Amino acid sequence: MKRYFSNRNFLVWLLLSCCSLPLLAEASSFNMTQGVTSISHDVYSLHMVIFYICCAIAVVVFGLMFWAILRHRKARGVQPAQFHGSTKMEILWTAIPVAILIVMAIPATKTLLEMEDASKSDISILVTGSQWKWHYKYLDYPIEYYSLLSTPSAQIHNTAEKGEHYLREVDRPLVLPTGKKIRFLMTSDDVIHSWWVPAFAIKKDANPGFINEIWTRVDQPGVYRGQCAELCGKDHGFMPIVVEVKAPAEFDAWVKEQAEATAKAQADAQALAPMTKEDLMALGQKTYEARCAPCHQVSGEGLPGVFPALKGSVVATKNLPLHLQTVILGRAGTAMQAFGKQLSISEIAAVITYERNAWGNDTGDLVQAKDVAAAMPAKE
Amino acid sequence: MHKPLLYKLLLIGACMFAFTFALIPFYSVFCKLTGLNGKTANSSAIAATTVDLQREISVEFLATVDKSIPWTFAPEVPRVTVHPGEVRVVNFRVENLTSEAMIAQAVPSVSPGQAAQFFKKMECFCFTQQPLQGKESKLMRLQFYIDPALPAETKTVTLSYTLYRVVAQ
Amino acid sequence: MSTNEHSATAHTDHDHAHHDHKPGGGITRWLYTTNHKDIGTLYLLFSLLMFFIGGIFAMVIRAELFQPGLQLVQPQFFNQMTTLHGLIMVFGAVMPAFVGLANWLVPMMIGAPDMALPRMNNWSFWILPFSFTILLSTLFMDGGAPAAGWTFYAPLSTKYSGDSTAFFVFAVHLLGISSIMGAMNVIVTIFNLRAPGMTWMKLPLFVWTWLITAFLLIAVMPVLAGTVTMVLTDKYFGTSFFDAAGGGDPIMFQHIFWFFGHPEVYIMILPAFGIVSSIVPTFARKPLFGYESMVWATSSIAFLSFIVWMHHMFTTGMPVTAELFFMYSTMLIAVPTGVKVFNWVATMWRGAMTFETPMMFALAFIVLFTIGGFSGLMLAIVPADFQYQDTYFVVAHFHYVLVTGAVFSIVAAVYYWLPKWTGVMYDERLGQLHFWCSLVSVNMLFFPMHFVGLAGMPRRIPDYALQFANFNAFISIGGFLFGLSQLIFLAVIFKAIRRKGVKATDQVWEGAEGLEWTIPSPAPYHTFETPPHVK
Questions:
Q1: Which of B20, B40, B71, B107 to mutate to probe the C interface, most C CBs <10 Å?
Q2: Where are the domains of chain A?
Q3: How close B90 gets to chain C, by Cα (Å)?
């Protein structure tokens, strides 16, 4: 075997391929992201180290195999050898892989232990997955909100040109400060989801009824995008994650702004000003397409056997109190969520008005914010 | 003449089928021992004999309401700081927002999972049915302490409850 | 060992069968047959049909993913396609193909007249068409077919699934029963019907790997049956095995499922190892290197398969100690798997190789399966797995081990033994064309999936961000080409069945050794009615 290894062409070829691999990996945007946290850098280098080890093994094993294919072929008139075992070789090629595996396991173990240490965090955020949106609740500030896909349905159905961040944009991103250890607590309202932001090397399942935790510390301000990674039903591909990381001062300003906006929204709801039918229908259509259409479809026809139709249904054409109750409180035992806590009073009023007047449901009913407020469960 | 072997193989198959169902209690015991899924034992703990005044543990409370039940559910304080061994009481407020009577029960989960076995509850409402009349509200009591044997690296323990509706059979 | 006595008894049984079940004409021959060759043929044709049905579903998936945006199908139907594609390919194509090969080959390789339990054999095949008819019929139901993925994680498959769940559960029960019966038959045959002199360490490696596979099947198919039963009772009968509300745990579903699922993966690859270990020595004209270590490696892979299941679940949240244990145990699998690859290379070393179609597929298997092994090793590294998990990197990984692994080995086996089955040589030019078309297209199809996965594309999504567009178009083209290439395979088989080709000799391949090459080609309806003596 020594003789073959001294073959110059073979060596040159081996060297060339080894050198070109790192270049390829760096140049390509189709490699794992290096990310923006120290953990994500560790994960990236771990990935590359193991990749190179695999490449080296591949070069040796496949090299020998192709050598045999080229040289030890009947067409060259060779006589087959008849050996069929060698304990020495067997021991060798059991021991060498074990040694290589140990070399791989050491850095992997080190990185893992670091990843799983969520103690001494500065900020905690409860992340709740539900079909098909994320909810963020800052445990240290009075801020909580839903974050939904903001790509218009026209782009998805190819009737409008797709934007730069197609399917990776949301109405309200998660906002984080730089330089702080953030602890995420994950849970779910329905099925299993998985919260994944590649730039932070974070992927953790959100399990209904259970909590998981994971942490990150981002030093670079910027916008980072990811999406749900665990099959969670029909719109699994349409629940992205966008994280905006801001300098601490900007983050504090954002926190203040949020508090003011919440106060203003409450005041608006108190006023309960009636809206015109046009305004109700416009807001209702917008809200419906963002929140209701994923299940009940833009056409209001639902999906037979899975999600009921609203077009021509008893609830959406006759029984108004039940309609209000269903939208506000949800339907127990079904996928119908309680939107009372997700939407504003005027949005609920608009969406019910829309459902009662669209797709030939022409009931002519106008539902105003005050009607919704009356139907809302009283808060102490 | 093939029958003895065939019967043995059938027996293996039947045992494996039964084993699948035996995994359920086995899993619970395993989780309790290792904190695999962060479930806690029920309220049966008796007070610890020592209080470790050197350490402080931050205990966080989370309350989630499943969408099947239109109630509100929240701890009266979001977090407390305790010494291991020190007994504390935290109340959770539930309110039935509807006008119908309903029954709910809370399912606990602790993070990090390994801390679950050191989270000792002396009085707890978890896994017990909570009936509430329409519009009724009530305080539910949790009395607990953190076992001083809690591993030193754990500084924060989170107890999360999810409130589910119980539909009477 | 009382092999002699056993064989003699089997012989009498068989004579009896001989008079009752002569190959007649028409459908009843196939309905009532208890002949291992007939049943082997039925299994193989059934799996070919399923391979094309599952393939059509894959084409739908690739067509939708050809461009960003929703063009052809709606997301719910897309999920039904991914689910059915997985279920059909795993349970309908790969597993029955291996059972078909076992039926044809195990008796001929060990010098037995037939399988030990011929009537059960008939039954275990004929359950399958019913099972898959039930499964496929859900496509026409209101709400459509199951859409929770072939892994059907709770609660998506329980609380949030349609009524097709009940049909799915029943279909899985049926195919589970079929697999268990098939496995029992293989075990009893190998234990009781070996010809005199066919000692354990003389068994061809295909028989060894199938024996170990059969034990895996008996151990884990009942676990799958238990799992789907729990899904059924959770959905319809008010239990809460997997529902936190009633004190259950959805993560427990994944534990039980993968306790079945990981050995299942090896059920689909161990017989492939046996096939490659038969083909490589034949075309290298040199005995298999390290026979004993091959048997040892197969057994240790089977054993390890029971203690690695949580590596499918690293992101579900588990204690660090569990993550470390399952990382190390998973990495350990690389050792016996490596031994096999090294042994194959050593078998080729200083042989006198020729490169007929079966050898080409076997060589492609060795290289491409090893690439799948490398990505498997990368996936075992927990911190990196957090980035790979549930992305196209995983899709690339398991398609390398299952398509260029299991499926390529099945195709190689068909080319290798087809002359023995039909009595004519297959069309070598078509075979080579099939190989090269498949090789190029399968790599166009699956290799770029590594890159889109690393770049951040999750699996099981019907639409994707724009940066993945070019790669997905390329992958889809590879997919269509791979699908079309399989039509060449169909043509080869069709020609051989029509007996169009050069008459095959008994030995068929110059370097072939083993009992199946001592009987005439095509293999007569009844073989080894008097057991041969193995020296």
A1: B20
A2: 2-115, 123-268, 272-375
A3: 22
CATH architecture assignment, domain C3-517: Up-down Bundle (1.20)
HEC string of C334-372 equals HHHHHHHHHHHHHHHCCCCECCCHHHHHHHHHHHHHHHH
Q: Cα–Cα distance between A318 and A364 in angstroms, integer? A: 11
Contacts of A115 in chain B (CB under 8 A): none
Span B24-50, pLDDT tens digits: 888 888 777 776 766 766 656 666 677
Superfamily designation of domain B57-166: Ctag/Cox11 (2.60.370.10)
Q: Which pair of structure tokens corresponds to residue C335?
A: 């050792």
DSSP conformation class of A104: H
Residue B47 is predicted with a pLDDT of 67
CATH of domain A123-268: 2.60.40.420
Residue B157 contacts residue C238 (beta carbons within 8 Å) = no
Choose the CATH number for A2-115 among 2.40.110.10, 1.10.287.90, 3.40.225.10, 3.90.480.10.
1.10.287.90
Instruction: Determine the Cα–Cα distance for residues A320 and C62; give it in Å rounded to an integer.
Output: 45
Taken in order C117, C120, C124, C126, the sign of the CA dihedral is positive
- A119 vs B contacts (CB less than 8 Å): 153-156
Active-site residue (options: C3, C33, C178, C305): C178
- Domain spans of chain B, in order of start: 1-34, 57-166
Distances (CA, A) of B32 to B35, B48, C25, C253: 5, 19, 63, 17
CATH number of A272-375: 1.10.760.10
Sheet containing A133-138, strands listed edge to edge, beginning at the edge strand earlier in sequence: A143-147, A133-138, A123-130, A182-188, A212-216
Residue C332: partners with Cβ closer than 8 Å, 6 or more residues away: A101, C304
Q: Return the structure tokens found at B163.
A: 């409130």
Residue of C57, C51, C52, C56 whose CA lies nearest to C81: C57
- Reported ipTM: the value is 0.88
Taking CA atoms, what residue in B is nearest to A375? B98
Which helix (DSSP H) or strand (DSSP E) does residue B12 occupy?
Answer: helix B3-34
Place of tokens 């980035």: C387
What are the tens digits of pLDDT across the range A205-256?
999 988 998 999 999 999 999 999 999 999 999 999 999 999 999 999 999 9
